[in-house]
Fold this sequence. Notes:
- By secondary structure, chain A is an alpha/beta fold.
- Helices cover 40% and strands 19% of the residues of chain A.
- Chain A has one domain: 3-Layer(aba) Sandwich (Rossmann fold), CATH 3.40.50.
- The A-B interface holds A 10, 12-13, 15-16, 19-20, 23-24, 57, 86, 88, 107-112 and B 1-2, 4-5, 7-9, 11-12, 15, 19, 22, 55-56, 58-63, 67, 70, 74.
Amino acid sequence: MRHILIIDDEDDIREVAALSLEATAGWDITTASSGADGIRAAADPKQRPHAILMDVMMPGMDGPTTFRQMQQNPEIATIPVLLLTAKVQGVDQRRFAGLGVAGVLFKPFDPLTLASQISEALGWKD
Amino acid sequence: MTDAQDKTAALLAKLWVKIQPLVEQRLATLDQAAAAAVAGNLSEDLRKQAAGDAHKLAGSLGMYGYDEGTRIARDLEVLLGGANPSPERLSVLIAELRAAVFPKA
């Protein structure tokens, strides 16, 4: 079974994304409300995720900064990260893609198709 | 629609009810910013807070099916991103946003 870590400071986004992925895909979900908590959750060997869905704009450590810190930790550097952003300008999209993340998804996402968007972005066939 | 999608849609409808006070709170911040802009005393802090709330509304309303709300909130975010947003435009967009999200209000 797939296990996804959702990192977003907004409670409702985490809740909608989690219920969407649990209900439509049957995936296991862990959530974190900050970049620092997300790094700790990702590094926990008991709940190592198959992928991370992470907001770009968060107070304190934002998504890109959190991603760069994850890259410094060999235990979690290989976990694919999808950034989640409400920014729609092309320049932002190119900047985020240039970080080396596995993909960029956009807010607002469609809760009924979020799991298929993630699978498509990561090349998951199951 | 599959059973799983039906279930998800039903849960989303419940979540929408739960989240409405937060949406109202964000709209209230936008109202405050518009009132301050009309009075000519919109502070930098309030403008940035309102822009942030518009950003959050833009990123969330569409999840609940309010695509027009997301579009209007994006326009508000852009407007509030400038140093001196037009008070008239601000008031019009906020009224449109409220009507799009709470059509019977």
